[in-house]
TrEMBL record, chain A:
Record's keyword terms, sorted: Phosphoprotein
Organism lineage string: Bacteria, Pseudomonadati, Bacteroidota, Flavobacteriia, Flavobacteriales
4-aspartylphosphate modified-residue sites: 63
An example Gene Ontology biological process: phosphorelay signal transduction system
Gene3D superfamilies in the cross-refs: 3.40.50.2300
The keyword Phosphoprotein is annotated on this UniProt entry: yes
Domain spans labelled Response regulatory: 6-134
Extent of the signal sequence: none
Full protein name: Response regulator receiver domain-containing protein
Domain of life: Bacteria
UniProtKB/TrEMBL annotation, chain B:
Database matches in NCBIfam families: sensory_box (TIGR00229)
GO biological process assignments: regulation of DNA-templated transcription
Enzyme Commission code: 2.7.13.3
Protein name: histidine kinase
Ribonucleoprotein found in the keyword field: no
GO molecular function terms attached to this record: protein histidine kinase activity
Domain PAC stretches: 224-275, 351-403
Enzyme class: transferase
Domain Histidine kinase: start-end pairs: 421-634
Amino acid sequence: MKKISDITIIDDDAITVFGLRKLISTSIECNSIESYANGKIALDALTNFFNNNQQIPQIIFLDINMPIMDGWEFLEAFIELPITNKIRINIVTSSIDPRDKQQWEHYKDKSHHLITFNQKPIDRNKITEITQLA
Amino acid sequence: MYQNKATPTTFVRNFIGMIKVPLISNTSFIIRQLPTPTAFVDTNYNIVQTSDKWTSIFNENEESNKSNSLFAVFPNLSHKWKMVLENCFKGNPQPMGIHKTIDTKGQDIWFEWTNAPWYDANENIVGAIIQLNNITDAVNNELELNKKELLLQQQTEITKIGRWEFNMEDNQLFWCTTTKSIHEVSPDFKPNIETALFYYKEGHSRNTISMALFEAQDKGKPWSNLKLQIITATGKEKWVMAGGKPIYNKGKMVGLIGTFQDIHEQVEADIKIINNEKLLRTLIDNLPVNVYIKDTESRKVLINKAECEYLGVNDPKEILGKNDFELYPSESAEKSRAEDLRVMKTLKPVIAKETVNTRLDGKQTSFLSSKIPLLNGKGIAYGLVGISLDISKLKEKEKELRNIINIASVQNKKLLNFAHIVSHNLRSHSANFSMLLNFLESEKDEDEKKSIVAMLTKASNNLLETLDNLNEVVSINTNTNIEIKEISLNEKVEDACQNLSPFILDNKATLENKIPENFIVKSVPAYLDSILTNFITNAVKYKHPNRDSYVSLSAEKKGNYAILTIKDNGLGIDLDKYGEKLFGMYKTFHDHTDARGIGLYLTKNQIDAMNGKVEVTSKVGKGTEFKIFFNEKN
């Protein structure tokens, strides 16, 4: 398995962040795992990386329901960034609202990045499956 | 030839010989002056002497007159007269009757002829004196009378108007043939006044005619056009028109004459027409629709009760003859007139068209209206009949129903939304639990285990809080019997400020209560507390970093609402971006540590539950203004 350099988790729920970190670190080899409490903080950080030619994380775990800037708003802004690399964005949510699934399909088709839709809970097998390079 | 010619001469000679010529010549000028046309003829029928009156009528010259035979002057009469005159010569004068002659001007003249023997001094009959009595005028009158009689008879036959005469002196009643035939009695029937009255139907008819008869005899009062019923000799009921008046002779009432007309068919037809009209009238008046008929000028010529009621009048006469321009505002009238013209021109009816009609007083009514052209014998429209069904109530019900459907669909959406929120929240917690428990199971490190247990506790607390929040939302939305009270808004605001005073002081905020003291809102007290606390807290909490918070509260009444306005000078919200989500659950828009995203969601639910609404205007960096609408109709 190819080694993954950077992974980013964007979620306002501390427990989920803790869980994802634990799952990833025990099953995948990677350089770093960063986490952000909402879309706005994450977008600011990633835009900053991009502008400074720093490494953009290869895999992003994205929650939908977050304060200030939610997952969709983040996606909307993120796919506008002219990033040539194909980034894997794993949406992780407990929502079963069909509208969220529609949104996902909308962005999936709109972007060259790989966007997946995953429902909680995420187990070890799942994390291995979705933490592969796009 | 000669002998024949000579014969009269011989007679004359003899005649002259018999009477003394001087006598004649003495009397001749007296005879000429006689005031009546008179002729003296001898026994040979020769005219011996005439009065000037005679001469002037027959215009013979005296010579020929004297010499001419009577039969030369009246060739048509010779035979009959000869016999009469012969008798006269024998001393037996007979009436000669009436004869027509033609005068010099060619006009018919009628004469009554009389004759008398002409005696000489010795009492010998020497001839005859013929006198004429001009009765042309009398004859003409009689002819005229005959004519009139004939005319009357014909008229009687044609119009079925019979005549009758009652002679008061001998109590005789005369019926003409028509009168008899109306009574269906035989032509030789002899009526008298008692039987005549008896033919009238007992009751009104007989009473009326008896009264009329009495008044005519008693007071000389005529009667006319009495519509009465008789029972004929064959037992048929008939309508008749009776008239009568007294006749006088030398100022004394001598009898009565009158007319008697069979109007049965007419009356029956009239009754039928009246009945039909009544039926039609009853029908259209009791139809629960507005019915009217308009002429080509769109003037109403017939309206039913419902239309009267619609137009607010008791008597149709107030409306009849008026056109739409006199009954409706000009805009409505123009539309209606254009439609009338189209219907009458194209002859195509308008059927069950949904229209809104405005009355002069501004009241609007929804109608399902039809306009059907009325055609004359030539197929040209002479007006139209309009039928309008008032569907205002139906429309109102429809609107209500639509409202209910809207409310239901909004409720449904809210419920679905809520279901998703619930499922999302519960699922996220249960996912956390299951994940953490998985970790705990496989974890060897004790410190890590403790850390996981701490996480589990936190997750459990979060779940409880979420359940509390959800429970609160559910209770707002399911509590249909919420008790709405009239509350002084000013007092409640003061209370809220009191309760929040430490928080307000900490934030160095200024609150201004501009609400009038007597301002009343209809609200659930607990909801009002929650609404005030939430909005005031938010206004203060999201203050602008560069200035102290200033919040003003004011109130006004508008339409069906009491409106509370809460205005701050805080951060403001980008409504283009967040407007839709502002009142969503767990939506926060500011990077604020104690923003939970539940306050506005609950408040919105409470306002909705009281049939109110919230409006928001905001400018980023300037401030936000919330308007909370309390429904006055509660």
